[in-house]
Amino acid sequence: MSATVVEIVKASYLKTKPNDETLGFGRTFTDHMLVMDYSVATGWTHPRITPYEPITLDPAAVIFHYGQTAFEGMKAYRTDDNRILLFRPEKNFQRLNASCERLSMPAVDEAEVLEYLKQLLIVEQDWVPSSPGTSLYIRPFIIATEAFLGLAASKEYKLVVILSPVGSYYQNGIQPISIKVEEHYTRAARGGTGAAKTAGNYCATFNAQTKAAQEGYSQVLWLDANEKKYVEEVGSSNVFFKINGEVITPELNGSILPGITRLSVIEMLRSWGIPVVERKVSIEEIFRYDDEGLLEEVFGTGTAAVISPIGELEWQGRKLHINDHQIGEVTQKLYDTLTGIQTGKVTDPYNWTVEV
Ligand code: COI
């Protein structure tokens, strides 16, 4: 199938758009969405832009029982001269296909879906906000729709892309957040689905996240499932530590999500001559570096979270106060450069942005 113009059914009324100042994360949705269907007999078919509306599924659909699903998170940004930019979108569709592979779901044609997404963004262009720190969050997802309770991969799927104008993921914007190391629960085990962007990885974090929030923390830091020793990731992002001039991030090991912001941060730091190491890093080691006065900055990276400084880390009743709860120099430079490239304010030497 070639990427032609998708069928477009326009919404009969258009919603009132929220003010940029009131935008939080993921509660407001645009007027239209992109939908495609898959069956084993036809492959992916019938791409269409429809009004944003509820999806009706058979109660026996595989998604409801066995959670066969994958999703992505990406953003569209408005430039000062009113162009709309995507950030490394091909990486998101590659990762969607990697998630599909792990979950026994059919791959999509990456270039074709990107083309359809651009058409959706043209229909919804007025929804891309322009204030600093805002963007149009893009949530592509695939669900297993076959009505069958036997334990087997579905033979039918739906791909849907919805759009949501967003501000900062965290309430206090780019202010450093507090994080608690989770010592009881596990997010993902080696050989499991941790590297895939799939619903179960996220709902498995809700209980620890709720408890941490009750104690005043914004997020949970997950350790490896085997030894509860090595740092993996934060609920909504990958994590980086600046220690004595060097930046360390946990190496991808099959249970960590391969973040596109993570990759971009590694590439930016290397291009600035700042050493970056991807390796196993234990939580005990991080606390030891702090005792030695060597822990300089900690930050999370993600599409929704962007670059989020971490000001406090709690583990086994001990608390680290990082950089006096101030955003670090490298963290700030990464935030400014990344968001500058994404919004077209800073030259993009890496060719990461794609114009819609
Ligand atoms: C994203 O950063 O796009 C994510 O998917 C994180 C999210 C689960 C809020």
TrEMBL record:
Requisite cofactors: pyridoxal 5'-phosphate
Domain of life: Bacteria
Name by which UniProt lists this protein: Branched-chain-amino-acid aminotransferase
Enzyme nomenclature, EC number: 2.6.1.42
InterPro entries: Aminotrans_IV, Aminotrans_IV_CS, Aminotransferase-like, B_amino_transII, BCAT-like_C, BCAT-like_N, BCAT_family
GO biological process entries: isoleucine biosynthetic process; L-leucine biosynthetic process; L-valine biosynthetic process
NCBIfam families: ilvE_II, PRK13357.1
Keyword Metal-binding tagged: no
Amino-acid biosynthesis found in the keyword field: yes
Residue numbers carrying N6-(pyridoxal phosphate)lysine: K197
Keywords tagged on the record: Amino-acid biosynthesis, Aminotransferase, Branched-chain amino acid biosynthesis, Pyridoxal phosphate, Transferase
Record's catalysed reaction(s): L-valine + 2-oxoglutarate = 3-methyl-2-oxobutanoate + L-glutamate; L-isoleucine + 2-oxoglutarate = (S)-3-methyl-2-oxopentanoate + L-glutamate; L-leucine + 2-oxoglutarate = 4-methyl-2-oxopentanoate + L-glutamate
Family: Belongs to the class-IV pyridoxal-phosphate-dependent aminotransferase family.
A GO molecular-function annotation: L-valine-2-oxoglutarate transaminase activity
Pathway: Amino-acid biosynthesis; L-leucine biosynthesis; L-leucine from 3-methyl-2-oxobutanoate: step 4/4; Amino-acid biosynthesis; L-valine biosynthesis; L-valine from pyruvate: step 4/4; Amino-acid biosynthesis; L-isoleucine biosynthesis; L-isoleucine from 2-oxobutanoate: step 4/4
